[in-house]
Design goal:
The complex is a heterodimer of chains A (249) and B (269).
Chain A: H1 13-16, E1 35-42, E2 52-59, E3 63-68, H2 75-83, E4 90-95, E5 98-99, H3 104-110, E6 111-114, H4 127-137, H5 142-155, H6 171-183, E7 189-193, H7 201-216, E8 220-224, E9 237-242, E10 245-248
Parallel strand pairs in A: 3-8, 3-9, 6-7, 7-8
Antiparallel strand pairs in A: 1-2, 1-4, 4-5, 9-10
Helix pairs in contact in A: 4-5
Chain B: H1 2-24, H2 26-49, H3 58-78, H4 81-91, H5 93-98, H6 104-111, H7 113-134, H8 143-171, H9 178-188, H10 200-207, H11 210-223, H12 231-263
Helix pairs in contact in B: 1-6, 2-3, 2-7, 3-7, 3-8, 3-11, 4-8, 8-11, 8-12, 11-12
Classes of the chains: A alpha/beta (249), B mainly alpha (269).
């Protein structure tokens, strides 16, 4: 473990309230952690080795965790399982004690995932329309809808791009929009897969501020990137994924 | 109540998104209107050649076929859902829908709203152009009844789109099977000619799916053609298909998504 580098700013009044998608304080089961991965096993094909081999990981409230590892080692698979996108062969993923199978809607209200790459956007929609659409399917309540979208635009400095279509934006601008979408519903757990791809320094500062907001409400952030990248940033915990298991970095 | 309202907004948001994307391609609407116009022109002149018992005049066959080509647009719209799902898979937006509280299943159903409503509008436009330009004789007394029947037809057709969308989630191909199914249904559904012209065993097939009942009923309401079966029977058939197949198709879709999540293929495209 190392000292937390992300300065937690005094939260704005809205950030003290439960997330609009969460609809109430996040903690559920007593003693539950923001994210708990237990004995995860995943194998893509019978003739291939396990990608995740009894992998355990617990994120404590208000912490950031970094997981590194060489390309193809299984970081994205781990994040996809944690996000509820794919199911493990065995083991469990719980967010505040809730498994996706038990309560999918609640699980998805609490967790938000930024996949690697530049996909997941509608090329013909403007930034504002994209965020509005995402806020709707994130089921942000009507009374907070406009405020939430405007906050995402201002937090990620997207004002100048608000009316620009995605297919007319640079890769870095798209990445900033993708990050804005990830943080928009005020998730309790944020899963970031190579979030700094194509981002400039300003974008990096913005994402750090957004992470600090999550920590301020006792959420947790899991940040994955290849080994050797962003080692100048510190996290509360650092792990390397090797042969399907996490080892201290 | 509040959740229901929020979900309702999400449904509308998907529809608005699709409308915006549609309108962002400026020539698409013009192209579709021209296609409707040229189809009408084609069948107007084809109807001059038709001498089939059961059609009192050239105009009555024209009315018959105009309702058919209006309905085939509705058929295409319900079968467009698999392709829409495929586009979402390719763009990586399906993942986002799946990971949203709104969820993939509701999203796929919501995705069908715009194409179906648009096909309804295009069918209305086709009938309007037929009336204004080619003298299509509409039976105005029963035309308003065609609106609720058309909505019922959309509900009866929707499960077929959802079933093929489920297949797309599994096999990753959008048009797998849909083109030949549409062609087959346009024959056995009597879209271009009466099913009475078909061999006896094919006529039996025609009675086993909702398309024949839909064309039969809508033709009666719009152009006062004779009915192949009682309107109650046609209505019951449409309601039956909607009530039985809609939940069944949604269940199949949920199983297809679960299968993809279990196998990890949900992320493939």
């Amino acid at each position: 473990m190392s000292a937390r580098p992300l300065q937690v700013a005094e939260p704005e009044p809205w950030s003290r309230e439960p997330g609009p998608a969460a609809g109430g304080p996040a903690p559920a089961a007593e003693g539950a952690a923001p994210l708990c991965l237990r004995a995860l096993r995943k194998r893509w094909r019978k003739d291939l080795p396990l990608v995740l081999d009894d992998l355990d990981l617990t994120l404590e409230p208000g912490t950031t965790t970094w997981v590194g590892g060489r390309n193809g080692v299984g970081k994205t698979t781990m994040l996809r399982v944690a996000a509820g996108l794919i199911e493990p062969d065995s083991g469990s993923a719980e967010v505040w004690g809730i498994a996706a199978r038990e309560n999918r809607v609640r699980y998805q209200q609490l967790v938000s995932f930024l996949p690697a790459g530049d996909r997941g956007l509608y090329a013909r929609l403007t930034v504002t329309r994209q965020l509005e659409f995402w806020a709707r399917i994130a089921m942000v309540p009507r009374e907070r809808f406009h405020e939430t979208v405007q906050r995402a635009i201002s937090t990620f400095d997207l004002q100048e791009l608000a009316d620009r279509r995605v297919d007319r934006m640079s890769m870095g601008q798209r990445q900033r929009l993708r990050i804005a979408m990830t943080f928009l519903p005020d998730p309790e757990v944020v899963l970031l897969d190579e979030p700094l791809t194509s981002l400039d320094t300003e974008g990096t500062v913005l994402i750090q501020a957004a992470v600090a907001e999550v920590l301020a409400r006792d959420g947790a952030v899991l940040w994955c990137s290849p080994s050797g990248e962003h080692l100048d940033m510190s996290f509360d915990a650092r792990w390397m994924l090797e042969r399907g298991r996490l080892v201290a970095a | 109540m509040n959740d229901g309202l929020t979900a309702g907004h999400a449904f509308l948001a998907v529809m608005r998104r699709d409308l915006r994307i549609y309108l962002s391609y400026r020539t698409r609407l013009v192209s579709q209107v021209l296609t409707a116009l040229f189809s009408l022109t084609l069948f107007f002149y084809v109807s001059r050649l038709v001498h089939v018992s059961g059609f009192a005049s050239h105009g009555s066959y024209f009315g018959f076929v105009v309702v058919g080509i209006s309905l085939i647009g509705v058929l295409y719209s319900s079968f467009s859902i698999p392709e829409l799902v495929r586009q979402e898979l390719i763009a990586g937006t399906f993942d986002r829908l799946l990971l949203s509280p709104f969820g993939a299943i509701r999203s796929v159903i919501a995705m069908s709203l715009f194409p179906m409503m648009f096909s309804f509008a295009l069918a209305t436009l086709t009938l309007g152009l037929g009336y204004l330009i080619f003298g299509l004789q509409l039976h105005w007394a029963t035309v308003p009844l065609a609106i609720p029947v058309m909505l019922l037809v959309l509900l009866a057709f929707l499960p077929f789109g959802i079933l093929f969308a489920s297949l797309t989630v599994v096999v990753k191909q959008g048009s797998v099977g849909t083109n030949w199914v549409i062609a087959l249904l346009s024959i056995v559904g009597g879209l271009y000619f009466p099913v009475s012209l078909l061999p006896g065993w094919v006529q039996t097939t025609a009675k086993l799916q909702p398309f024949t009942a839909a064309t039969d009923l809508l033709r009666h309401l719009l152009v006062n053609s004779s009915l192949g079966q009682s309107p109650q029977t046609s209505l019951l058939k449409l309601v039956g298909f909607a009530v039985v197949l809609l939940p069944a198709s949604i269940y199949v879709l949920s199983r297809a998504i679960s299968f993809g999540q279990r196998r990890g293929t949900i992320i493939e495209y």
